[in-house]
Amino acid sequence: MTYTMLRIYNAAVLSVLLYGAVTWSLTGTLSSRLDGFDGWILGIQILGILRWILGIHWRDLVSNETVQAIAGQPPASSLAARRWVRWYGHVLRLPPHHSSRAIL
Q: Are 18 and 76 spatial neighbours (Cβ–Cβ below 8 Å)?
């Protein structure tokens, strides 16, 4: 069940968080905000969901980094960087006269 819930988390939460990440300039501030996105989205605390999925109670005093490591979740900033690199590779394979490559 945990595996299924983590897949739903990746599909429903991370995909929404990183929508359009290929167009972002990943600065230090944005990177730290992405990595610490334990804020409230639609009234749900995101890392609280990971803790709930894994059965970790808030009284257990487990850091967010440890929760992500247990869940096998990389930091959101590294996921955004991976998406940008993948997009960059696609653009570099376009013909030199293509408008997207010319803009890049």
A: yes
- pLDDT tens sequence across 56-92: 887 888 887 888 888 888 888 888 999 999 998 998 9
What 3-state class would DSSP assign to 40? strand
- Distance separating alpha carbons of residues 91 and 54, to the nearest angstrom: 39
Give the single-character DSSP code of 12.
Answer: I
Average pLDDT of 23-37?
Answer: 83
How far, in Å, CA of 100 to CA of 95, rounded? 10
CA distance 65 to 79: 15
pTM of the entire structure? 0.72
- The 10 Å CB-count burial string (b at 16+, else e) for 25-47 is eeeeeebeebbebeeeeeeeebb
